[in-house]
Design a protein that fits this description.
alpha+beta, 3 helices, 2 domains, 10 strands, 227 residues, rod-shaped, binds calcium ion, single chain, 21% strand, 3-stranded antiparallel sheet
Length: 227
């Protein structure tokens, strides 16, 4: 029988160290596994968020016919959605009038005079503009997100002579367009200039760039920014 003193003095410490190492290794593996899982989760979430933040012009909605007047009496709404057709809040919407010569935007709205109006969508992905402007154009207004064009809209304004007001001269100009197909003078966008369009113009006589109808107080409510 071997005396206890013959036991290798190193044996027990080594065995203890090995067991401790296994526990440490398992802990390390678990920590690594958790880290890898969290990294993958973060990557997936980031991709989902990135995708949700990107407007898809094909799913955005904007009227190809636009109406404006110096008093800002007509709403024009743009809906911004992503590739899964979900609305995007806080998205930039740009109305670019630079290819619509003959249109004059009121300086009170296009304060930097660059021929563009910029809005931001609300929680429903919607941005509503009350375009203050006048004039006639054969060009189109590019309606788009920060990156893409959604639609090239045809614009008609109540200020037919382009002097930034609506008065008897505009009424006379509209009378000369009666029976035509528009877009000039076709304010209800039904493809013909008639008495209904005359009635619309008559309701805005006296309006100009300085007009501030009651509805403009709702600008803040729709959370659209202009500059
Ligand atoms: Ca501008
Ligand atoms: Ca006028
Ligand atoms: Ca009409």
């Amino acid at each position: 029988m071997k005396p206890p003193s013959s036991v290798d003095p190193e044996a027990r410490p080594v065995a203890v160290a090995t067991a401790a190492s296994r526990v440490a290794a398992q802990r390390l593996l678990r920590a690594l596994g958790t880290a890898v899982f969290l990294s993958l989760l973060l990557a997936v979430l980031s991709a989902a968020i990135a995708r949700a933040d990107v407007p898809d012009a094909a799913n955005c909605v904007a009227d190809s016919n636009m109406v404006a007047s110096p008093d800002g009496g007509f709403a024009y709404t743009v809906l911004v959605r992503d590739n899964a057709n979900y609305p995007i809040a806080g998205a930039t919407v740009v109305l670019d009038f630079t290819n619509a010569p003959g249109i004059h935007l009121c300086g009170s709205q296009d304060s930097d005079l660059d021929g563009r109006l910029i809005g931001t969508t609300d929680v429903n992905g919607s941005a509503t503009f009350y375009i203050k402007g006048g004039g006639l154009t054969a060009g189109r207004v590019a309606v788009g997100t920060a990156l893409d064009v959604i639609v090239e809209a045809r614009l008609r304004t109540l200020d037919l002579d382009g002097d930034s007001d609506v008065d008897t001269l505009d009424q006379a100009a509209l009378n000369a367009l009666l029976g035509t197909a528009g877009p000039a003078g076709d304010f209800d966008k039904n493809g013909i200039v008639d008495a209904a369009d005359v009635a619309i113009l008559n309701a805005h006589v006296g309006g100009n760039c300085a007009s501030s109808p009651a509805f403009q107080q709702s600008w803040g409510a729709v959370k659209a920014r202009y500059r």
